[in-house]
Amino acid sequence: MRFCCSGRPNFRLSWRLRPGSASPRDVVTRVLESAVVLASEFDLPVVAAGVSVPGVVRQADGLIREAPHLRWVDVPLGEQLAAGLRMPVTVANDAEVGALAELTRGVAKGASDVVFVAGDVGVGGGVISSGKTMRGAGGYLGELGHMVVRPDGQECHCGCQGCWETEVGAVALCRALGLPLSIGRGELHAELRELADDPLTALSRLADYTGWLGLGLVNVVNLLAPQVVVLGDLFAALPEPVLDVVARRVRERSMVSRAVGDTQVVRSALGRDAHLIGAAELAFSPVLDAAAG
After folding, report:
1. How many CA atoms lie less than 13 Å away from 266 in the CB half-sphere?
2. Which end of the chain is more exposed for a tag (fewer CB within 10 A), N or C?
3. What is the block-wise mean pLDDT of the chain (293 residues), using blocks of 10 residues?
């Protein structure tokens, strides 16, 4: 993907990648091939690349410590892509770059304390505190989906029981809607769009799901005290009445939300491009800093 100065993509090239369907080597090969195609579309030099990955990423060198839904462990993705592309490559967790994108170009623009919660196969979080990205030890902060909310709940792939993502991830959403767990994302989004036209049915069918989503967000707000919580990916596709209930529960049940004057809970303005726009922002930063210096 290549971006114009407004931060919006002006050329796109993609392919379908199912969990566990491709080895790191296959993905690196496809990315390098795609980079050649993209570069040929523009008569401008390519100076840096940013990569968003749904997993635990060491941003210092782009090592994918673990990406469970891709079934990757200890993959030196940053080094491999930098060697193949022959340029600086920045690799980061998808929720982290989603938070950066929404802060700089999205619905959280102007805020200084933001949490971006990405819900897809799993659940992750990106945290901006006082205008700066929080990364924690090794850069691994943000695994909000593995906050235990239901000790007697379902076993999670991480080894714990009742993690938040087992109650609000894509599989949980399919269960709540009575859909096959193997359903494609397009079909799941279509089901959610249909529900949006019937608020009462949406609230009824997603009542338990809404409760778990609200509970987790209350914990997140009490812990991190953001001005804005941005919901991305599948969460952003939830019907408006469901998000209204979730936002109200956060306002009513979070001590921090009451203290800071009602934390906003909003859907992503950038949609699925948030991760890519944020990755591009990370790639831009050192290039712009070098130019300014």
Report:
1. 19
2. C
3. 54 71 86 86 80 89 90 94 93 94 94 94 92 86 93 93 95 94 86 91 95 97 96 94 96 89 91 90 74 58
Alpha-helical (H) ranges within the chain are 24-40, 77-85, 94-105, 164-168, 170-177, 185-196, 199-205, 207-224, 240-253, 255-260, 274-292
Bridge partners (DSSP) of residue 66 are 56, 73
SS3 267: strand
DSSP at 238: S
Q: What is the pTM of this model?
A: 0.90
Q: Which two tokens stand for residue 141?
A: 């902060």
Neighbour tally for 215: CB within 10 Å: 20
SS3 per residue for 20-72: CCCCHHHHHHHHHHHHHHHHHCCCCCCCCEEEEECCEEECCCCEEEEECCCCE
Neighbours of 67 (CB within 10 A): 21
**Alpha-carbon torsion (229, 234, 236, 242), positive or negative:** negative
